[in-house]
Amino acid sequence: MVSFEVGIHMIKTKRIYEDPSKEDGVRILVERLWPRGISKERASIELWLRDVAPSPELRSWYSHDVAKWKEFKQRYQQELKGKESMLEEIRSRAKKGTVTFVYAARDEEHNSALVLKEHLDKQMKGRR
């Protein structure tokens, strides 16, 4: 799990296959597709923002190839510029308490939830 502070609150990332905990705060699924083998009860998701996830075309192009990571991050950040209403929803919730981006990727160091978290961190630091 990776986290950073936003004001006095935190945004974290966590694989959906890890057990939910009270420390997660608001659990937001940031995947376009529902993760395999996970029931809605087990997931304990408060909000599913499928459209904040990378486009199907970008996901397909990246295909979890770490050699493409740097360019994937740049392309995904460009896509995020068109998703301001969803980003505002996340910022609003993060101002109230802990938010955890829940994702399905196996790679905990190279996934879209981390890019989303970094993107919001930069935005929120600029607004302080």
Describe the structure.
- There is one protein chain.
- The protein has 128 residues and is α/β, with parallel strands linked by helices.
- It has one domain.
- It has five helices and five strands, in the order βββαβαααβα.
- Strands 1-2-5-3-4 form a five-stranded mixed sheet.
- α3 crosses α5.
- The radius of gyration is 14 Å and the shape is globular.
- The N terminus is likely disordered.
Summarize the structure.
With 128 residues, the protein is α/β, with parallel strands linked by helices. 40% of the residues lie in helices and 18% in strands.
Q: Residue share in helices?
A: 25-40%
Strand proportion, as a percent range, falls in 15-25%
Listing every helix as H and every strand as E from the N terminus to the C terminus, the arrangement reads: EEEHEHHHEH
Task: Please give the radius of gyration in angstroms.
Answer: 14 Å
| Structural class designation | alpha/beta
Q: N- to C-terminal separation?
A: 25 Å
Question: What's the main sheet like?
Answer: 5 strands, mixed
Low-confidence stretches: 3-8
Number of domains: 1
